[in-house]
Amino acid sequence: MTAGDGTSLTPAAVAARSNRMRSLGLAAMIAAVAALCVMSLAIGTRDVAWSDILAALHGQVDSIGQAAVAMRIPRTALALVAGAALGLAGAVMQGVTRNPLADPGILGVNMGASLAVVIAVAWFNITSAYAYIWVAVLGAACSAVFVYTIGSHGRGGATPLKLALAGAATSIAFASLVIAVVLPRNDIAGGIRAWQVGGVGGATFERISHVLPFLLVGFAISLLSARRLNSLALGDDLAAGLGERVAVARAVAALGAVLLCGATTAICGPIGFVGLVVPHVCRLFIGIDHRWLLPFSALGGACLLLAGDVLGRIVARPAELDVGIVTALVGAPFFIWIVRRQRVRDL
Q1: Where are the membrane-spanning stretches (predicted)?
Q2: How far apart are alpha carbons 54 and 8 in whole angstroms?
Q3: Contact predicate 94/281, CB 8 Å
Q4: pLDDT digits 0-9 by tens, 287-332
């Protein structure tokens, strides 16, 4: 590679320049998240002035505008952490499975968590917030293992295409089971249906505090798995030759993704396509190094969910469109584009 003046650059100089560009990109992503947080506080059924935002951030609720901002603060915080969790989980799942179509929704993980929560509510009458989270995480884990087991059968093992097909079939089956469980229970049907759409409305700091420990553990495990995911990207044989315990590396990284997916689904409902769209877009700009891809995906997921929530408030005024619907409208065409872009034999 040559510099602008025609002189050649050493590999170390190239790496340093690339890292500087990535650092600038990371700073830009952080600034974008901050800007979207401000927009989330300012935009809604009622637009508010800067003075109301600043007053509400200081705890004042003396006017209607300040009260509106006070209600949007936990909603913004939930969209921030949930988007980051889903974006990071998607990047980890794509790294674990080496599957460009991997996504908590497409692989059936979100719907597994959803089915577990619905069964727990309908059949066991759970009411504890922590019980919801544990049940959702267990359901997500069982679904992930089930899909991977089904996708591993047959010639070639767990290929990306077979995993995607197994996940799609599992999601459809679990969605049908959710309907079957809810239909006889009119007393919970309304709340379950609203939760299944996926959204961040009605968030409170109390609810966020219940799920935050699970998310923090998931974030830590996932981010610390970056080096292992880089090894897995080289192939199982080469990763094992480099001293990596492939099965352990894959299981630990998957655990982080399952924690993120299960906890997010418990509080927001099953929100799809964030984990598919965000890692792909980030990979186009910063490459495949998971040490950079994972934090970029977390910030990108936060941006997408914050922007989707703001857009949902604008397009249906004075009503609101849940962010799960907005991400589906964005993600479905993106999924079709990825499938058309990739050759089936290369998936």
Answers
A1: 24-44, 76-93, 105-126, 132-151, 163-183, 208-226, 247-272, 292-311, 323-340
A2: 52
A3: no
A4: 889 999 999 999 999 999 999 999 998 887 777 888 988 998 888 7
* Residue 204 token pair: 């409170």
Phi, psi angle pair for 8, to nearest 5°:
-80, 150
Q: Which residues touch 297 (CB under 8 Å, ≥6 apart)?
A: 87, 88, 90, 91, 278, 279, 282
Prediction pTM value? 0.89
Q: Side chain identity at 341, as an amino acid letter?
A: R
Tokens at 259, concatenated: 């924690």
Alpha carbon of 135 to those of 69, 103, 114, 177: distances in Å? 33, 20, 9, 16
* Residue 236 pLDDT exceeds 90: no
Q: Is the dihedral of CA 328, 190, 80, 296 positive or negative?
A: negative
In this structure, are residues 103 and 273 in contact, taking their beta carbons and an 8 Å threshold?
Answer: yes
What confidence tier does 337 reach under pLDDT thresholds 50, 70, 90? confident
- Cα–Cα separations (whole angstroms), residue 49 to 19, 38, 45, 310, 319: 39, 11, 13, 16, 21
What the block records as the tokens of 274 is 């964030």
**Whether 283 contacts 265, CB under 8 Å:** no
* Partners of 8 in the β-ladder: 2
Domains of the chain plus CATH, in order, are 71-346 (1.10.3470.10)
Residue with tokens 């877009």: 281
Rounded Cα gap, residues 187 and 72, in angstroms: 29
- CA-closest candidate to residue 276, choices 84, 85, 86, 36: 86
Q: Which backbone phi and psi does 2 adopt, to 5 degrees?
A: -115, 155
Taking the C-alpha atoms of residue 111 and residue 52, their distance in angstroms, rounded to an integer, is 39
List the structure tokens of 7.
């002189």
* Alpha-carbon torsion angle 279, 269, 105, 309, nearest 10: -40
Q: What are phi and psi of 255, to 5 degrees?
A: -60, -45
Do 249 and 239 touch, CB atoms closer than 8 A? yes
Phi, psi (deg, nearest 5) at residue 288: -105, 5
Token digits for 322?
């849940």
Q: Is 8 helix (H, G, I), strand (E, B) or coil?
A: strand
